[in-house]
Amino acid sequence: MTRVEQELDEFAKLDAEGIDPATGDPFADVPALLDTFLVRNVPDENEVLVAWYGGRPRTALPGEDSYVTRHGAFEQLVDSMLADGGTRQVTAPGYGDAMVTVQRVRAGQESGALVVVSYLERDRAELRNTFRTYALVGLAALAVITAVAFWQSGRLLAPLRTLRDTAEGINESDLSLRIPEQGNDDITALTHTINGMLGRLEEAFVGQRQFLDDAGHELKTPLTILQGHLELMDPTDPAEVAETRALLLDEVDRMSRLVGDLILLAKHDRPDFLSPAPVSVERLTHTLLAKVRALPGRAWELDGAGDAIATLDEQRITQAVLQLADNALKHTAEGERIRLGSDVTDGVVRLWVADSGPGIPDDLKGHVLERFGRGAVTADDEGFGLGLSIVRAIAEAHGGHVTVDDTDPGAPRPGATVTLHLPQELPWPGS
């Protein structure tokens, strides 16, 4: 109907404002007006434009339309509508449903009409074909989209399936499995995070297993000693009971120290292991020197003191430095010099203890920092090889590390300098 209204509006405008091309004046007769309109318009595919005057159809576009040109019912219908115009729906033989619209026109004593015939069945057939085409295209597009979505979802979810398979393959004896990382999307970021978590879990389990193995190994000897002496002791001999009691108390004391050291190592990665606070490095260094000078028989010297404020756990650092001082005491002779110092450079706090003893061979400098790792020891050394590992644990809890170097490289007695390297500010908030 929109197209028909457009045709009628154009015809009304031509009637009101149009110029007859033959005369150059406004249209003076109906045939000229109707014929000019038909010449200037092209009907739609399912539409017929008819110039009606003199009581019958004179010109039709297209002209081969049989309903308009050869069917008497059409003329009767238009005759009945000329007086009032308007639109009626009829059944056109051979065409089905049709809409016939009549717009009357008058010029002088002549009258006529523009008749527009719209075949509805053809429009409906075209509409059905259009919907059918849209439906087929939509189904084909849906199939393609579904296939692409299925493929894409499978590709995107593949890392999650791999994650599931990897998680199923992890057990208490094998934590080494990792998920392949490919791409640069959120799934890859998740994979990287999961791999990091697996790495930390593996490290924790390995550390726990090593801790249990080391503890079991080191406790086995004192327990064997306790059991053996208790089994062989004569309870009726007061002297033997007293001797055995003293010996067993000494072993119990050694076991207590060993358990305490192991507990400290086990706790070093806990959030509450440190209680950091702003500390004057210079004051801390002088305090440490005052404490180690209470250890007899050595010449304790200050080897510099850093002038800065650092965020540290003063008690833990004191524990570490006193442990280094105790180690230096064991590996130096009466009257030998031991130096303690500190400095702060580029945001790194360095605290060291340098002795003048026999030193540590290069191949053992990393080993002595491990649990139960020991170099050459004196006959009276009752340690367990946990001292430097405790120092390293305290340094790592601060986000730092420990190095072992020669005090005087190339000398017959090169000595050993053990240094704590600590960030001036903790690399994470809190402890």
UniProtKB/TrEMBL annotation:
Pfam families: HAMP, HATPase_c, HisKA. Its main location: membrane. PROSITE patterns: HAMP, HIS_KIN. Its EC number is 2.7.13.3. It is found in: Cell membrane. Keywords: Kinase, Membrane, Phosphoprotein, Transferase, Transmembrane, Transmembrane helix, Two-component regulatory system. InterPro entries: HAMP_dom (IPR003660), HATPase_C_sf (IPR036890), HATPase_dom (IPR003594), His_kinase_dom (IPR005467), HisK_dim/P_dom (IPR003661), HisK_dim/P_sf (IPR036097), Sig_transdc_His_kin-like_C (IPR004358), TCS_sensor_his_kinase (IPR050428). Residues 214-426 form the Histidine kinase domain. Signal peptide: none annotated. It catalyses: ATP + protein L-histidine = ADP + protein N-phospho-L-histidine. One of its GO terms (molecular function) is kinase activity. This is histidine kinase. It comes from Nocardioides aestuarii.
